[in-house]
Request: fold
Amino acid sequence: MRRLQTRLRYLLEDFPAVALLGPRQVGKTTLAMQIAEGLDSVYLDLESPSQREKLSDPELYLADHKRKLVILDEVHRVPNLFNSLRGIIDQGRREGRRAGGFLLLGSASMDLLRQTGESLAGRIAYLELKPLDILETDAGAQDRLWVRGGFPESYLAKNDMRSFDWRENFIRTYLERDVPQLGPRVPAETLRRFWVMLAHNQGSPLNAAALARALGVDGKTVAKYLDLMVDLLLVRRLQPWHANVGKRLRKSPKVYVRDSGILHTLLNLATKEDVLGHPVSGFGWEGFVIENLLSVAPERSEASFYRSSGGAEIDLVLTLPGREPWAIETKRRLAPKPARGFYSACEVVNPEARFVVYPGSERFPVTRGVEAIGLKELTELIGLQNRN
Reply:
């Protein structure tokens, strides 16, 4: 069972509609079917022409299911539906049905948020389903999750090569079929080159000019490509920490391919040995840690990084609601020790807690108020904040 299931049930009890967002193949439909068990419900896959045809007159069709949970999968395929849903939800409220009417599943974030935000303001809640994280997978399987990533079919494959093949086909399908449906038309080969370039620059500050030169396009086009990958929930843009400090801070965001398995496939790395031998290995671990921690962070948490022109740096500045920032460094070695720049950055950020996340499981002090901690334990610790 996905950890998000309980949260999804709560939202359906409080809102007329809930949008469950996430990249394709992450498990949205499976989770929706689990939610529907024991409920009077109806499911429509709007990628199917025959299923879309049922909604040619949405008011008429949905009137027959007004006391059911209606699950609409790939709802962005019928953008004109949202205006109809508004009227149906408002009519249901007048008749005393105030929550639990619609569960909308979508593979893109910003487009869907814009469409629903225009029509369903105050009537809808949003929830993102991310790939599997370390708290949802087998004990002792951290390296498998890191190498294969968290898409269920990839993680659960019989061996590394089958997992790699699944991810390669996932990438190809996204570029050739899904991106043209979900965003502006971009040549598949161009977008793949861009995605691979981001993988080679995992965890580095965005250099749009260099990417533009390599692709033979202008900076605005690079920005459009990046926006698309972020909107599809495939790439994370981590913004720099900001405060009124008298130092020159780097203003460019850092960019990460969000799923570590997809990252490794873009770099043609199929096994753990392949990954460990690649120069991006350390940055790949950094992105893996960040995604796992943010998957359990409470709503309204703020994530950023700190980097000054003088070399002071913190990989992740995580600010939980109502708390002072936590400074989190990542090291892919069993004897972790932050660089001097981490301590200099902490003097500016003044964090409440300081951690170095490493591949081991023992928790111990490093020096000067810094603790080494395993990824699972820190993820659990942040998850506890979510329940407090």
Residues 4-128 form a domain with the Rossmann fold fold (CATH 3.40.50.300). The first helix runs from residue 4 to 14. The CA atoms of residues 145 and 155 lie 6 Å apart.
